From TrEMBL:
SUPFAM superfamilies: Glyoxalase/Bleomycin resistance protein/Dihydroxybiphenyl dioxygenase (SSF54593). Pfam families: Glyoxalase (PF00903). It comes from the Bacteria. This is VOC family protein. InterPro entries: Glyas_Bleomycin-R_OHBP_Dase (IPR029068), Glyas_Fos-R_dOase_dom (IPR004360), VOC_core (IPR037523). Residues 4-127 form the VOC domain. CDD domains: VOC_like. The lineage of its organism: Bacteria, Pseudomonadati, Pseudomonadota, Gammaproteobacteria, Pseudomonadales. It comes from Marinobacter halodurans.
Amino acid sequence: MNPRMSMVTLGVANLQLSIAFYRDGLGFPQLDSPPSVAFFTLNGTWLGLYGRDALAEDVGVPASTPAGFPGFTIAHNLPSEVDVDRVMAEAVAAGATLIKSPQKVFWGGYSGYFEDPDGYLWELAHNPFFWIGPPDSASG
C-alpha cells in the first residue's frame, strides 16, 4: 500500500452555510461540484462537504449527533507563528469559534484551535522542528 489521505469528507448540517464558511470565509478554492456536495482542493488532498444525514446513510450508520470530543482534529501547519495568528484571525472573522488561542505548546511549537460551523476542530500550528508544506515544496 502507498499510504496517503486523498480526501476528508465532513458531514455538515447546512451545506450552503459550510460552503460559504470554507469558500468565502477561509478562501478554500472550490471545485465544480454537484449541488448536493462541495469539493475543495487543498495542496495535495481534497476537502469534501456533504449533508450529515446523507453521509451517514451512504456509510450505513445512524446519523446521531456526536456528543463531546469526536476523537480527532484536522491540522493545518503553517511556516511561522505569525502565520498561525493571521490564519486564526481569518477563521474567526469568517465565523469560526475560537477554542484555544494560539500559544506556545508543550511539544515546542505554537498552535491554537478553532471550531467550524458544524463543530469540527481545526488546529493551526507552527512546528519549528519540521515544516509540512505543499507536496511540491522542496525546502518546506
